Amino acid sequence: MQHRVQRVKTRHIILAVMCLMYFISYIDRVNIAVAGPLIRHEMGLTTVQLGLVFSAFAYPYAVMQIIGGWLSDKFGPKLVLTCLSLIWGAATLATGFAGSVAMLVALRFTLGIGEGGAFPTATRAFTYWMPVGERGFAQGITHSFARLGGAVTPPLVLAVVVAGGWRDAFILLGIASLAWTVLYLLVFTNSPEQNRRITPEETAEIGYRTGDCERARKTATPWRKLIHRMWLVTFVDFCYGWLLWVYLTWLPSYLKDSRGFDLKQLALFTALPLLAGVIGDTLGGVVSDRIFKITGRLRLARCAVLVVGMGGSLAFLLPMTSVSSPIEAVWLLTASFFFLEITNPVLWTLPLDIAGKYAGTAGGMMNTGFGVAGMISPVAFGYLIERTGSYNVPFMVSAGLLALGIVAALFINTARTVEADEERERREGGARGSALAFLDAMPGVRMERHTLRRPLRWRR
C-alpha cells in the first residue's frame, strides 16, 4: 500500500493561517493611531480624550495574557481563539459606527480583551503542531507578520480613509477579522489526531503521541512551578518590551521633534525600523533552531540569540543619541530595532520549551511583562522628556534595561522544565510509597498515626 505524498504539510498550512492572524490582529491594534487625527477632528476630542481612547486597549490586554493562556490550556486553543477573534473582530467592526468618546473607549477596551489572550493562545496552539526544532521559526515568522502588519497599516488605512473615510477602514478590517475566524475554524484542530489531512509520518515528525492533548486538558495547572520557572523570562520580556513600546509610540515624535523630519519623510523613516523588525523576527527564530539542530543544546540555542539580540540592540542604541546626522540616527535606530526583534521569537518559544503542555498559561505569564511595559514605558518616556527637555535621558534608561535583560538572559535554563519537575516529584513520591509499603509489610511492624500528634509513629 502506498502512502499519499503531501506537497504541503498540514502543520505548515496551520502556520500560514496563524501568520495571517498575527498580521490582521496587529493592523486592528494600531489602526487607531493612523485614524486618530481624523477621529479627533470629527468628534471634537481633546488630546486627553484621544489619549484615553489610545490607552484603553493596554489594560485589558495585559490582564488577559494569563487568563487567555490558561483558558487555552483547559479548553483548547480552537475554542478559545475562535471566541477571542470574534470579540476583537466585532469590536473593530463596531468602531466604524462609534458616535462618542465613551463608545470608542469601550470598544478599544473590548478589543484589548480579544487580542490580549490571542498570542498566548496561538503559542499554545503550536504545542502539539510544531516539533522542537521548528518552534523558533514558527514564532519568528508569525511575529514577522505582526511587524509587517504594523508597517503597512499607515499606507493601507490612509488609502481606505482617502477613498471612503476613517469609518470604512474599521468596518473593512472588522470584516477581515471575522473572515479569518471562519478560515481558522475550517483548518485548525487542537491536535494532529483530530485532523483528517495529516499523515502518520508527519505526526511522527512532530513527535505527538496519541492522547497527549486530552491528558494535558485534564491536568491541574501547576501555578507555583510555572511562576518559579517563568519569572526570569517575564523579566527579560519586560526589558525587551520597554524599548519596543518606545518604537511603537514615540518614534514619530522623536524623528519630528529631535531630528527635524517633515511629515512626508516621517512615513518612510518610521516604517524603516519596523520593516527591519520583520527580517529580525524571522532570522532570530531560524538561527535559534539552526543552532539547536547543529549542537543539540537547547539552552545555547535560545540564550545565545537572546544575548546577541539585546546586546546588538544596545550597541546601536547608545551611539544613536550622540550622532548629529538625522539620517545616521535613523539607520542606527533601524539596526537597533533589527537586533531587538531577533530576541522576540526566542522569548515566545521559551514557554513551549519550559512549560510544554502548559505553554498557554506560561506564554501569558511571559507576555504580561510586555503588557506591563506597555503601561509604564510610554508614560515614563514622555515624563522624562518633559522633565529634561531631551530624548537622550529616556533612551539611556531604555539602554540600561536592555543591559539588565542581557544579564538575566544568561540565567535562563531550558533544561529546568515544568514537566521535569513533575517527573521528579512522581519518582520521589513513588520511592516514598515503595518504602512505606515495604515497612508496612514487615512482620510485627505497623504504621499508625498518633491521635494527638501529626507525625507518624512506629510501634512493635
Automatic annotation (TrEMBL):
Gene Ontology molecular function, alphabetical: transmembrane transporter activity
Primary localization: membrane
Entries under PROSITE patterns matching the protein: MFS (PS50850)
Occurrences of domain Major facilitator superfamily (MFS) profile (ranges): 14-417
Bilayer topology annotation: Multi-pass membrane protein
Highest taxon of source: Bacteria
Protein localization: Cell membrane
SUPFAM superfamilies: MFS general substrate transporter
CC terms in the record's Gene Ontology section: plasma membrane
Keyword Transmembrane: yes
TM regions (residue ranges): 12-27, 47-67, 79-107, 169-188, 226-248, 268-288, 300-318, 330-350, 362-385, 391-412
Entry keyword Transcription regulation: no
Keywords on record: Cell membrane, Membrane, Transmembrane, Transmembrane helix
A Pfam family recorded for this sequence: MFS_1
Protein name: MFS transporter
Native source species: Trinickia symbiotica
